[in-house]
Amino acid sequence: MATYLITGIAGSGKSSVAQVLARRGYHSYNTDDMPDITRLEDHTGRPAEWPEGPVDWSKYAWNWQEAGLQKLLTGTGTAFVAAIVSNQARFIPCSRRSLCWSLIKERFATVC
């Protein structure tokens, strides 16, 4: 199974790329909308409720949950995962390829 991580800053187009891939028949996931896979945690790693107003990221982390991510990707063949999470560096060895998207001059460019 090949797993590709599509990552980049907020608003860079990760979700749009995931939607296009899904429409073309690929297993493609935006994990932001999957609470069994991605959740807000406090600095101790415990689940946290969304605070009112802007999130103070020095107190919180948006993290993947390993069991949920493994369950999602088990047996899917080639899969694309669109996300930006606090702990993604831990999972990059699990992906076959990492794509970083940035919005540059009104078009997407692969930057790494």
Summary?
The protein has helices spanning 14-23, 66-73, and strands spanning 3-7, 27-30, 38-42, 60-64, 79-82, 97-104, 107-110. By secondary structure, the protein is α/β, with parallel strands linked by helices.
Compile the SSE list and pairings.
Elements (H helix, E strand, L loop, with lengths): L2 E5 L6 H10 L3 E4 L7 E5 L17 E5 L1 H8 L5 E4 L14 E8 L2 E4 L2
Parallel strand pairs: 1-5, 1-6, 2-5
Antiparallel strand pairs: 3-4, 6-7
What does this structure look like?
The protein has one domain (3-38, 68-110). Helix content is 16%, strand content 31%. It has helices at residues 14-23, 66-73; strands spanning 3-7, 27-30, 38-42, 60-64, 79-82, 97-104, 107-110. The strands form 2 sheets. A 5-stranded mixed sheet has the order 2-5-1-6-7, covered by helices on one side. A hairpin with a 2-residue loop joins strand 6 and strand 7. The chain starts with a strand and ends with a strand.
